[in-house]
Write a structure and sequence with these properties.
This protein is α/β, with parallel strands linked by helices and 307 residues long. It is built from ten helices and 15 strands. The strands form four sheets. The chain has a six-stranded mixed beta sheet.
């Protein structure tokens, strides 16, 4: 990459950071990130949990720093692929459906919380919460370069965590996990590991279909695109166990791998999926709100569901 392109990338990164809002720990107020220089912007973006200005709260190992930079590269790639929407900058490729918002008396409190300027909209999550940043991982994975980068990053994390040698099957919930399963299967490149997919069933549940069959002795890695509340992974666990219950068996889940971890609390990330080990290619904690406490709804900023 030549000097001009490098400068452009750094300038773009700084601009993105100036509009980003994160929460350093559960329950904290949102922080508007103001990066004084591209170099310090990259440093702060590496580990979003430790944003305290004026001093460095955490001494990070070389390995942690390298993982942070790699995660940043994936995040920048997703942004360049038009897969990241901000409240004040929504890519043209996003397909949005307007969602009506009911006035709430508690909006008076929410109206005092600071938000970005020139907001175009905010976003409805599958959990029902609202957010000002929406990352549509599947939009990035439509490009082979991003797909390969995601697959390799997850492969590397699984190898370093000791999980790689424990996997017989990789399986994911519909439909966002499908390209992630494929990318990871190609990165692992093992004739001994099977890739399977779950289908949607009645009542919002998942089921194992398409002729796939699990046995209780097989060691399963769950895969998904985004982790917010762990709901999809929990339903995937239930569907896999249901598929072997008639034989009196129970599935053996060795861990989970996701592209994006939105959660600011690593302990919540772990406990939400039955305490199994988890790895994430990108750790990027994002703020979300219930409708009654949403500062964007309080200011009549349009709410969108991403289709």
């Amino acid at each position: 990459m030549n000097a001009a392109k490098t400068a452009t990338r750094k300038k773009g990164l700084t601009r993105t950071l100036r509009t980003a809002r994160v929460v350093p720990f559960p329950g904290a107020a949102a922080i508007s990130v103001l990066a004084p220089s591209p170099a310090s912007a990259l440093l702060m973006w590496d580990v979003p949990h430790f944003y305290i200005f004026g001093r460095e709260e955490e001494t990070r190992s070389t390995m942690a720093l390298q993982e942070g930079i790699q995660g940043n590269a994936l995040l920048r790639r997703l942004e360049e692929d038009g897969a990241v929407a901000y409240a004040n900058r929504i890519p043209a490729g996003f397909k949005l459906k307007s969602v009506p918002v009911q006035p709430d008396l508690r909006f008076g409190v929410a109206a005092h919380e600071e938000i970005e300027e020139n907001c175009e909209g905010h976003f409805l999550l599958a959990s029902g919460k609202h957010t000002n940043v929406f990352i549509q991982v599947s939009l990035g994975l439509r490009f082979v370069g991003t797909s390969k980068a995601v697959g390799f990053t997850l492969y590397k994390l699984l190898r370093e965590s000791g999980l790689l040698d424990q996997i017989d099957v990789i399986i994911g919930p519909p439909v966002g996990a499908l390209p992630v399963v494929t990318a990871l299967q190609y990165a692992i490149d093992s004739s001994k590991i099977e890739a399977m997919y779950l289908d949607r069933a009645a009542g919002g549940k998942f089921r194992l279909g398409r002729g796939f069959e699990l046995t209780g002795g097989k060691r399963i890695l769950l895969v998904d695109d985004v982790f917010t509340t762990g709901g999809s992974l929990r339903k995937a666990i239930a569907a896999c166990n249901e598929s072997v219950r008639e034989r009196g068996e129970e599935c053996n889940f060795v861990g989970a791998a996701v592209v994006l971890n939105r959660v600011s609390d690593p302990e919540a990330f772990r406990l939400a999926t039955v305490t199994m080990p988890l790895v994430a290619a990108v750790n990027y904690p994002l703020r979300d709100w219930d409708e009654s406490t949403c500062p964007y709804c309080a200011r009549n900023v349009p709410l969108f569901a991403v289709r």
